[in-house]
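A quick aside before the break. I want you to see a complete sequence-to-structure record at least once, exactly as it would be stored in a machine-readable document. Don't worry about memorizing anything.
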Amino acid sequence: MVGFEVVEFNYTGAATEFEVPAWVTNLTIEVWGAEGGDSECCGAVVQDDGGEGGDAVATLYLYVGGQGVLEGAGGFNGGGAGGEWGGGGGAPP
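That is the input. The structure line, written in tokens, reads:
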């Protein structure tokens, strides 16, 4: 490996575009599912692994999931809803 670059993407509520530079010959991706919403009971939040790995030669469109809200709906792109006992993390597609 000649060099590497770490790029972090955070929740925006919409797709995030990342143009893969021409010099890239291999790309490793680490992703995690969005957190579920908090609970009024215990405040527990669980994070679920999404997956990792892959090669790319094009533009990537990243959809970063949003955390669900307390006692409310799930977040953007798979964040689990909150509830009395908390919410689960988003599932991979």
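Two observations worth writing down. The beta strands are 16-19, 30-32, 49-52, 59-62. The mean pLDDT is 61. We'll return to this after the break.
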